[in-house]
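Trying the structure run again after the queue cleared.
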Amino acid sequence: MYRMNFYESTCLRCQQTVYQVDRVGPLKDFSFFHSGCFKCAACGTKLTLKTYLNSQHSQDDKEVYCSSHVPKSGPGHLDGQAVGIRSALNVPRSSPVVNEQIRGSGRAGTFDAEALNIRSHLSNGHSYHQSGALDASTASASLAAAAAVHHHEYGRFDASALHIAHALRATEIQKAYNKAREKPIDYYLDKDEQTRLEMKHRKEEDDLYRKFARQREEEDKRMKDEIRAKWEKELEVLTTRFEREIRGRRRADEHRVLTLKMQQERDDLEKNMTLRRDKRKESLTRKLLEHERAATAALVEKQSREMLELINEKRSEYMMAESLYLDEGDGLTEGTPPLPYPSIPPAACPPAVPKFQLYQDPIEFSDIDQIAISVAQEDQKTFTDLVRQLVGRCGSDVEKARTIFRWITVKNLNTMTFDDNMRGDTPMGLLRGIKHGTESYHVLFKRLCSYAGLHCVVIKGYSKSAGYQPGVRFEDNRFRNSWNAVYVAGAWRFVQCNWGARHLVNAKEAPARGKSDALRYEYDDHYFLTDPREFIYEFFPLQQEWQLLKNPISLTDFEELPFVRSLFFRYGLYFPDRNTKAVMVTDSTGAATVRIAMPAHMQQSLIFHYNLKFFDSDGDTYDAVSLKRFVMQSVVGNIVAFRVHAPRSGTLLLDIFANAVTPREYLTGEPMKFKSVCKFRIACEELQTVMVPLPDCASGEWGPTKATRLFGLIPVTHQDALVFAGRELELQFRMSRPLTDFMATLHKNGVEEKKLGRYVAYTVTGDLVTFNISFPEEGQYGLDVYTREGQSTEGEKHLLTHCCKYLINSSKRN
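Done. Tokens:
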């Protein structure tokens, strides 16, 4: 059954639904036609994207015509109202100096050699393209250089002069992403022509796969012959020895013993040869696969180059005649179009603007993402069809890269099943490289980018991937990986489709209205156009220039960088201390501190937790005490600190988790899912002080910060997590919103909690909450405070929820 999707539009001619497979467009004002309806409105002549014309007489006429019947402005009617001349004449001036070459005398209703830069054409034949206006002082400086080169003057110029503005824009510092809309590929490259090149590539690919198959058969036969020869030789040795031994035995029981021994040795030999065969086959398969991957990558590199050459050639031809960008009349972006997409891939260099200047929230791509999701539900027989469906409504290179990235992440290629007899001309045959293991996400992304006209490279290097732990050295191929850089928005930017891919998960946050509504597509946006300064924490390229950093780092520096996950950057976290490394060495007391800074907008919602275990054994207890009790987590301002005290010399693994929740979500008391943001190896080489565990309080941060952040409970008497007290202590808080049913529990190592219950009491006076604690003996105590809000508007009563905790040192000397 056909599913309605994002591609369905209405044919301008017959007003019936037009589907992707039979669609022509978008044309003027985003109009569409059936391929059968795409005829001249006057004579019915069949049209193509190269031969159709729009009315020159009326801007409101969206119909298409042939060259013989297109409505035109008649003789004597070409005035200031026609063909957009008025908009050209009314361009705002960027300088009080009048540029006569462009504006002329400004007489309304005239069209002469003074207007629209025609004088330069008449006088010297030079033509220039409009690129926008820049600062007049900068223009003057560039103009002086230009005049020195050409050895003649052009008259009076300012920054709005068309030919110098283009040169200025080419040399100025790269600015933020310009979202001008480029026309779809249908405008300048015929689908059939692109498909013909794809078919040529597919034949090359078929030949390569047949070559792979022959090589595998030959190598398999050679291996089997070698194993068989060794088997026969060793069996002959065994048989000869048996025959020699049995000739010297005359008794029947001795014959039986020797026969059984012979049979056992034969079975052992057969098992040994089978193991050797399997091991040899595994090694051979691995070597062949590496060779096949390299050959496939080389072929895709060649084919991508050829596809880009075709697209660039047709794009350049089109740009000679018309603008590549949809104009204001199409209801799209105003302003000067960006420089044309480069036909030759630029050199690797750092992007001048960060990712957030391209887009600040993935929601900006909601329509583009929906296209990718819709296309992923359908099957395509050619890459040409696939990519045109993906990028048909994309008006920028960023959007093209985005929809390809999202298609790969939605498709979930790792879990796809393939038929053994799958051919290259079937829908799933497009992805046969994934089945054979010869094509990775990154090679596929590069291939699809070439069909969209985007430069893309596959980068090889090391990654802190599955199995990696802080401090591990990159000494072999265990953590080798590959990823992409795609040239969009005027710079090379990183894409990691494999790490960005996620699978379908149940959407529990909203009631399902139907089967499809119960599922949502999860992916990691961090790995799309990742900033180099963040990407380098997880990926290290073999070629230094592909770090895309102004100050590249060494492999040793990469190993020493903290082991962080994508969530670390999504929450905007950073390390305020320059000496924060993957391996944190303790001082002589066994203490080391990891400090993480939060951005201002996340301080009210982020909650942290941690886990501590021994690095080598995965054990999480020491002398039957949880290692968590050897970490003190606290929050002061925008800094969350984890102070670890090693209970003995050795190495520990500190895993730090985080989650962003609202106070209302926290107050429900429901379990929350925390995800790892970073890991550290804690190395304690020598311990001169015996450490005791912290009191057995609730997990999480110490101090009153959480009480203020989530409950509006403001500390009056004690703002710090650590409190020094005598034998009695009074703690006071002020409520900024109604709370009820307070509770506090006291903890001390070696003392049962219920025995300490009678030493804690609280009172509420107005908005002031007072806790009075008396300590039965000196020592270190932990105090947990719980509370809850009054009944919600729905009448629901919240559970008692942990509010905050204090570490208290009680002594008569305090």
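The CA atoms of residues 667 and 801 lie 6 Å apart. Worth checking whether this holds up in the mutant runs.
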